[in-house]
Design brief:
mainly beta; single chain; five-stranded antiparallel beta sheet; 386 residues
Length: 386
């Protein structure tokens, strides 16, 4: 069913005009093209095995609606038994969804969340040792900054009381009404990665002493991770505008999605220590020594948030673009033109997470103040992809 067109909220529009840039969820025009830089050239497979190139064209089938009636969902974390945890940006709560019935159980509210503009309770991730330590990590906008906290999850307690007190493991990420980043994920190396935004202050992105406009890599306790490119720093890459998607392929290579301003949104292959150009460059740049994107889109076609890897492709959720993009890969380059699916069918798309094999979880984002919610919004969908 084709959705009705999204109507802009006047206050949000005014904010964007005064900010002079696109928000985490909107921006103006462009088309699509593939680009890469020498530093993004496809490396040999770490496994030593030849990599299969996926078909140029893929497909998406919506298998079922897993859950409905969610309020401003942002982060999604599969628990491992088919159930899902989802965070609410504006309510500051984490809810468990039964993967079979769709029944929702609120774990509790995360204290100290200051939900304003694009900030609030954003990405969530499970500890690499979740089966034994039961720790949930969350990227949170507080009254003073963006920070990462962890909480003990005790499902034996009554609903609404299952989250322990938050322990702050990392603080000091710049906050703003816009560009708070917010995606967190544990990598194959068991280190914690975070995508941050420059909070509307473009100068932060090129400042390696600032945590804004970066991809950060840290230990589960919040210390700079061993092997980071800059001594005693959590900064893994810089020159980003607003990173909200992180995913790894089978060869443990990191990819990230990034909001552009008025011209180009990006999908990047992330190399430690590389500079991705913002604000000197938006999209592909022929000079400056910046790491060029794998692919770029007009901001009205994408405005990307979450990404996932499945079947040899990166799958990218579009907010303003209201579509799911498939980017087939050969190493760290696009092997064919990106392909769009579900255009306008479910409205704004916030988060996409690999569900194993040829399946993905997809989260809509129509109740975030910028969408046109329908009766069952927001929802989680299960997709079959190739």
């Amino acid at each position: 069913m084709q959705r009705r067109a999204v109507t802009a909220v006047l206050a949000a529009a005014a904010l964007l005009l005064t900010a002079g840039c696109s928000s985490d969820d909107g921006a103006p025009p462009e088309k699509d093209a593939a680009a890469s830089s020498p530093s993004a050239a496809a490396p040999s497979s770490p496994s030593g095995k030849a990599e299969r190139t996926p078909p140029a064209k893929g497909s998406v089938t919506v298998v079922r609606t897993v859950a409905t009636g969610l309020d401003s969902p942002w982060g999604l974390a599969p628990v491992g038994d088919g159930d899902l945890l989802v965070s609410s940006r504006d309510e500051g709560t984490i809810t468990r969804i039964d993967g079979t019935t769709g029944r929702k159980t609120e774990l509790g509210e995360v204290p100290g969340v200051a939900a304003e503009g694009e900030g609030g309770l954003l990405g969530i991730a499970l500890s690499p040792d979740f089966a034994s330590d039961h720790m949930i990590y969350a990227y949170v906008t507080s009254a003073s900054d963006n920070r990462i906290v962890r909480m003990l999850y005790n499902e034996r307690k009554p609903a609404g009381e299952q989250l322990g007190a938050p322990d702050t493991v990392f603080r000091g990420i710049p906050k703003g009404v816009i560009h708070n980043g917010g995606r967190i994920a544990f990598g194959p190396d068991r280190m914690l990665y975070a995508g941050t935004g420059e909070s509307g202050d473009t100068g932060l992105s090129q400042d390696r002493e600032s945590l804004g406009g970066k991809i950060l890599r840290m230990t589960p306790d919040g210390d700079p991770a061993p092997g980071n490119p800059f001594p005693d720093s959590p900064v893994y890459s810089y020159g980003h505008r607003n990173v909200q998607g992180l995913a790894w392929d089978r060869e443990q290579r990191l990819f990230a999605s990034e909001f552009g301003q008025n011209t180009w949104d990006e999908l990047n292959a992330v190399a430690p220590g590389d500079n991705y150009g913002w604000p000197e460059a938006e999209g592909h740049a022929d000079e400056g020594g910046f790491h060029n994107p794998i692919a770029q889109w007009s901001t009205d076609e994408a405005s990307p948030s979450g990404i996932a890897y499945a079947g040899g492709s990166v799958w990218m959720a579009g907010l303003r673009g209201e579509r799911l993009w498939r980017i087939p890969l050969k190493g760290t380059e696009a092997s064919a033109d990106p392909q769009a699916f579900l255009e306008g069918e479910y409205g704004r798309l916030r988060t996409v997470v690999a569900a194993g094999g040829d399946r993905l979880w997809l989260v809509t984002s129509n109740t975030d103040g910028r969408g046109a919610p329908e009766k069952d919004d927001d929802r989680v969908l299960e997709l079959r992809v190739r």
